[in-house]
Amino acid sequence: MGPLSPLVNTLRRTPPLVFAMAVLATGLVVASSVLVKGIRRGNDTITVTGSSTERITSDFVDWTVEVARSAPTLQASYQELQPEVQRTIAFLRQQGIAADAISRNPIKSEKSDVRDSRTGVLQSTTFTTRQQIRISSPEVEKVAAVAQQIGELVGQGVPLTINDPAYTRLSEKRVDMLAKATRDARQRAREIARQAGSRIGVITQADTGSFQITVPNSTEMSSYGSYDTTTIEKDITAVMGVTFRVE
Hints:
single chain; alpha+beta; Alpha-Beta Plaits; 2 domains; six-stranded antiparallel beta sheet; 10 strands; about 40% helix; elongated
């Protein structure tokens, strides 16, 4: 039958399952070739996450205390409040807080009625007048010390509500930390590209990730970022996702 006869006879003797497996194997080879080409076309960029962590010291503090007085009339509650406010401000000044660091928020008042639970008849009315005193200062250590001492006024009868100081850091530190995180991303991308026998080129995209300001040595992480104000010393961490061209 000619030169092709042995091949034809062989194919005729090949079991159908073996023939099908051979066709499938050929198809897989072709498919693999297409997949690799697709990956190579997609790998002309690389995206790396960079981070930077640093211990910082707060350079500003915001702190409030509230004075409140209650009396049977609004006028009486206001009149009784004023000496206590002046007494609190005098204490702050004696402790070395600068006058321009102290301010007063607007006075607020509220009315509370007490009625008989069965008849609803009004039994008494009390008016409470409040005023917040705010301390905003770059003298962080001094304010922190005064916050530890102001409880003395409570012991002397001043009706104070004492809030925790909020220690913050000015915003220009954020820019510096993001720049450091970008440099860290570049270093990581270079190492990855070197292992692949390539090198990185220009940045094609940069995305700011989470920005964390936490108490020292904290393991707290939030995808939305966090901003601790409870401590003077803090750890600040910036995260950047950077995409580089691969050459």
